[in-house]
Amino acid sequence: MTSPAFNHSHPLSPLGWNDSFAAELPEGSMPARVARVDRGAADVLAADGQHHITFGSRVRKAAADDPVALPCVGDWVALTLLAEGRYELEAVLPRRTAFVRGGVGRTSRAGLSGDGQGQVLAANVDIVFVAEPSMHAGDLADLGRIERLVALAWESGGQPVVLVTKSDLCEHELDGLVADVAAAVPGVDVHAVSAHDGDGVALLRTYLDGSRTAVVLGPSGAGKSTLVNTLAGHDVMDTALVRAGDGRGRHTTVHRELIPLPGGGLIIDTPGIRRVGLYEMTDGVDLVFADIEELAGQCRFVDCGHRGEPGCAVLAALEGEELTERRLASWRKLQREADWMASRTDARLRKAQQDKWKTIHKEMRRSGRNRP
Ligand SMILES: Nc1nc2c(ncn2[C@@H]2O[C@H](COP(=O)(O)OP(=O)(O)OP(=O)(O)O)[C@@H](O)[C@H]2O)c(=O)[nH]1
Ligand SMILES: [Zn+2]
Predict the structure, then answer these.
(1) Would residue 40 be called left, alpha or beta, if left means φ above 0 and alpha means ψ between -120 and 50 degrees?
(2) Which segments are annotated as binding site for Zn(2+)?
(3) 266 with 228, same domain?
(4) Candidates 226, 230, 236: which one to mutate for ligand 1, based on the most atoms within 8 Å of Cβ?
(5) ipTM given for this complex
(6) How far is 42 from 36, CA to CA, in rounded Å?
(7) The total number of structural domains that make up the chain
(8) How many CB atoms lie within 10 A of CB 357?
(9) What's residue 1's pLDDT?
C-alpha cells in the first residue's frame, strides 16, 4: 500500500484525509467523509462539522447505471455549495479500497466499475481485523473460516490482521494456537487479544496510527462489538460524539457507522460489513494459498487437478507433510466457491458453462443415460 505524504495540519487528517485524496478533489468543492448513507442522502463529516446532504444529479445518474457508484460509508466525497446555501454531494472520490458484494467483474478493481448488480459495503478501509475466538462453543479457532475472511480482506484491497479473540478463554496452549493460525495465513500478522483482560488491545491501536480506518469481521460471538466498544472507550451503539476534524464538532445521538476513535483512527461498523460472507473472491484466494499455488505451478501438467496425476507437486508436498490435508481441502473448497461466485457475475464464463451443460445434456440424451 502506498503511504502518501501526510499533512497533519489539515483539519480532516484525523478522519483519514491525505494528499492522495486531496489530489482527486474537484476544484471549488469541499471534501467530506461519508459516515452513513440513507436512501439518496448521507450524513457526512466535513471540516466544519456534520452535514446531512442529498446526492447531486451526476451521482444519481451514475448510481442508476451502476449501484457501485452509490456513495457508501467510508467514501471521501466532494461537496458543492448550492445557491440556496446548502451542500450537495457532487462526486465520490476514487476509492482506495472497497468491500463489494456481488455483481463485479473479475477485472474491475476496488469497486470502480461493475455490471450493474454490485453493492459497495464499505470504502477506504485500510485495516481488516479478522476476529476468530480462541474457543468457540468448546471448539478451537476455525482455521477455514479465518482463511476465507482473510481472502476477502485481500480482495477488498485492505491489509488483513488476524485476531484470536477471547484469549482468556483458551483452554489450550495459546502460543501453539496462534502459530497454527499464522501458518494458515502466510504473510499476515496474527495476535491474541482479550477485551476482558485488555491483552493485545494496545497493540491493535498501533495499526490505526496515521488515522487509518479499520473494520472488524468475524462470526457472531467473536467479540467484535466488545472490541469496538473497547477501542471507542464507550458504547458506540448508544450515543456517538460527533466530532469534526478540528474537534469543534457538535454532540448528537445519531447512530453513525464511521466511528472516530479517541486514540486516533476510525472504525467502520455496519450490519452489512458484519455479515460479510464470501463474495467475489479470486485474487484473495490466490494470496492466502500462495504456497499451494506455487506448488501447483511445479506440477508436470499445467492443468493438473492434483488428484493423482503423475508428477503432481501438490500431492508430493502432502506426502512429505509440508502441506496438510485440511489446508488442501480448504483451498479446493474456496476455489470452487470463488469460481461459482465469479460465474454468477462473469457473463462470458456463464455462457461457457451453459454451453458446457448443453453439450453434456446432448451427450446424455444421445447415450440414453438420462432415461430411467
Ligand atoms: N471471556 C471473554 N469474553 C468476551 C471477550 N470479548 C467478548 N466477550 C463476550 O462474548 C460475547 C459476545 O461478544 P460480542 O462482542 O457481542 O460478539 P460479536 O462478535 O459482536 O457478536 P455479534 O454481535 O453476534 O456479531 C459477549 O458476552 C461478550 O461479553 C473476551 O475477550 N473474553
Ligand atoms: Zn498437481
Answers:
(1) left
(2) 299, 304, 306, 312
(3) yes
(4) 226
(5) 0.96
(6) 6
(7) 3
(8) 10
(9) 43
Residue 49 lies inside a defined structural domain of this protein: yes
Indicate the residue among 216, 247, 274 that finishes a domain: 274
Q: What are the tens digits of pLDDT across the range 132-191?
A: 999 766 667 788 888 888 888 888 889 999 999 999 988 788 899 999 999 888 889 999
Q: Which amino acid is at 109?
A: R
Q: Do residue 330 and residue 304 come from a single domain?
A: yes
Which pLDDT score, from 0 to 100, does residue 12 have? 94
Low-confidence ranges of the chain (pLDDT < 70): 1-8, 102-117, 136-139, 235-255, 275-284, 338, 340-372
Domain that holds residue 64: 13-95+103-120
What are the C-alpha distances in Å from 18 to residues 23, 89, 118, 212, 319? 9, 20, 27, 11, 50
Known binding residues for GTP are: 165-168, 218-226
Name residue, grid cell 460524539.
241
Query: Is residue 165 within 8 Å of residue 133, measured between CB atoms?
Result: yes
CATH number, domain at 163?
3.40.50.300
pTM above 0.90, yes or no: no
Q: Is the CB of 169 under 6 A from ligand 1?
A: yes
Residue 338 within a domain = yes
Looking at the fold, whether 265 and 139 belong to one and the same domain comes out as yes
